[in-house]
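Note to self: keep these together.
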Amino acid sequence: MNEMMRLYQVCHRLSILSLAPLSSPLPFLSLKPARFTSVDHLRTHSKLRPIMTAATSRLANLVPANSFPGENGGGASNGSLTSSANIATEDDEALGSKYQIPPPEIKDIVDAPPVPALSFSPQRDKILFLKRRSLPPLAELARPEEKLAGMRIDGKCNTRSRMSFYTGIGIHQLMPDGTLGPEKEIHGFPDGAKINFVTWSIDGRHLSFSIRFDEEDSSSSMLRVWVADVETGEARPLFQSPDVYLNAVFDNFVWVNNSSLLVCTIPSSRGAPPKKPLVPSGPKIQTNEAKNVIQVRTFQDLLKDEYDEDLFDYYATSQLVLASLDGTVKEIGPPAVYTSIDPSPDEKYILISSIHRPYSFIVPCGRFPKKVEVWTSDGKFVREVCDLPLAEDIPIAFNSVRRGMRSINWRADKPSTLYWAETQDGGDAKVEVCPRDIVYTQPAEPVEGEQPEILHKLDLRYGGISWCDDSMALVYESWYKTRRIKTWVISPGSKDESPRILFDRSSEDVYSDPGSPMMRRTPSGTYVIAKIKKQNNEGTHVLLNGSGATPEGNVPFLDLFDLNTGEKERIWQSEKEKYFETVVALMSDYEKGDLYVDQLKFLTSKESKTENTQYYIQQWPDKKSYQITNFPHPYPQLASLQKEMVRYQRKDGVQLTATLYLPPGYDPSKEGPLPCLVWSYPGEFKSKEAAGQVRGSPNEFAGIGPTSALLWLARRFAILSGPTIPIIGEGDEEANDSYVEQLVASAEAAVEEVIRRGVAHPGKIAVGGHSYGAFMTANLLAHAPHLFSCGIARSGAYNRTLTPFGFQNEDRTLWEATSTYVQMSPFMSADKIKKPILLIHGEEDNNPGTLTMQSDRFFNALKGHGALSRLVILPYESHGYAGRESIMHVLWETDRWLQKYCVTNTSDMNAERDACKDDVGEAVTNSESKTVSASGGGGSELADFEHDEFHCMPRSLLW
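Structure:
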């Protein structure tokens, strides 16, 4: 769920493609997530309707969307007041299941056209503008899909479900003065084409990409590979035969050299998909008569029977085809479930990964038996690197991994040398052993009897390598439980030079983060650490690109770092008074030979609170900047919004931060306090000091995504975005054992801060969150009802007994931490929730732990205790929402809830807050007494101690 939180925190930003991956070349590198991203999967339903439950049953029917009625047709001057007559009329509509549209001030922001994504050529002399559309219609999500082995597959396209796409490609020449030449459109393909997997050839002279169309004919929906001449813009199909289709379930295609691609195609002899038998051949049986200990988290979309296994093979099996630009086509190897194809830097070999039977019904395909082989680039088998067995028994403890060889890759600095890691603890993080991991290296074709060479031994878990050359590489290792992360400097080509630690620090301590090495592109298309020389030619220097976290916010920097002495010279730093700037990529990396510090060229981004992100070329030695983009403001109606990073303190002394947004033109002395929406997501820490560190910058542009809480600035709300909710477990303490206490304390501090500032009305503060933020919301309404007037919980999990083998950052099982699982679950406290709560969930949520059933059962528990609640189930939607109808309806539901239960709230929250504080104090005293008594008796009974009589205090300890 952490990954989903990051998705929801950033929105209207660009994707910068083809820049500098850390170790191996990727088709693209995303700088900042875009407003519309590819969200999981499709559905098998046939009707388009939200399913809403307000009191007794779900009502569903398909009707056109209607606009939410606001005062004066869209709201009064303050934008957030709705008359009681309108609310009453709207309540009648709300009991139905029509797709609704939010007020115009919200709708117009969401419907704003997205800016294009950018991709730079390998020589950094051209830029692609990859054009995108706004939100997709729900009909696209309604396409049938197959849920197999942890994936969702669009059978008509033979690719992953619900892919986003580009609508066009424009090429601009990057002129010497930093300006862009006129746009040249890639042309030659039919109108309406959906473009994916755009990739530059190694020499930058051609582009490859896939094209598909939405047509009823299944063959028309299949993906075809196209290539385009960058100089002329002319595009054509790669294959002359119209019957060769791309299989993009796993890997898709890759440039082997400047004139040929290796493509995963659908086998020409595949035929029709297998038919599900009307009568099964037998019962579904799983057995553990060998008494193996196998613990797995709540994975979804797993294989269920032999028919699913056959269907998975049908869609996932590829035939590899080597296709040249001159039309030559050659099938290589047998059809198989190929998961990755990776040419060696010297273009002589291909590293081929595949999975094979026996499959599993309890883990996804990433744990299926895996074979890794080396072939020549023309398809001749060289050798088998490994054949790993089914990995159902990977322990749930963090840092546990698969047994055997893993992370097998080509060295970026060598023509054709492999490297990998092997665990020495059997993959079990709970086993104490030294070393824990060993990194090996070996040529693609070792001579007979040549054994792998040990490159480095690690006491923590291997985390990757940044290559440079035989004299230097950086090896990373880390350990989650202690948050320790170490960086080693090794000399791969010298056995006489001992490895040494470059950095040894806490991954939580952002203030001590030295930054990451900048990478340069090699002629073969790989990326290695850029060595930088001074004119005096002394020392070995690299560039460290850091976020520059400080107590005042992030101030990104670029340091010239001497690897031998450890001395740093800051050669660039973001302006910190008004702007937030970052170094995105090294643009002088295509130059042959050494890189000198006075000849550097960088791509940087620049933004402010009110100015959206633009990109610049900055060149040494004069460090002059050339602006290369001029994207319009995505929502000019909020261009003058007010943003401030605020700091405050929790009652236990932990420093907290949040970003406070206020509507344009708001003056507290004239308007008084506003309705306020608090939107957040808890995080786990091992120390109070790390939890209190400031992350982010007050000068970052306020990106507003399709479901962002910041949309309610347009409705004259104050928004407290991302207030830190640290759950701290220092030393041997488990953070989740005091989850609720810390959660409530953090929320209390945040609410007191916005009230103290006079910007939030004490009785009109709502709380909300997505995923783990929804879990937080439900717990706060159960244990801190004095703080909030209502809550909005999207795609959450509420009963932790349904995720018995760990969740989020908890790796103890339900049986190891029963009290914690129970006490953390707001489902168990449904009887305590007295404030209005809106539950929203995608009907096809595929995120482990947040099954749609979680919201269904939680709502039934709430309804069973008479709680004021509403459940909205979104057909076809997964963990994140994608369809325009769904997103607009979510916004309408949220706005209705806020208008009705926050804006118009008249309860005396101050009196309720004071009464609850008295109860909290008494509960804490009782809890402390119980702790002393229990420990004095020789065994703690604290986990069984409950405060059922207190509505605003946790029963004991949680998270």
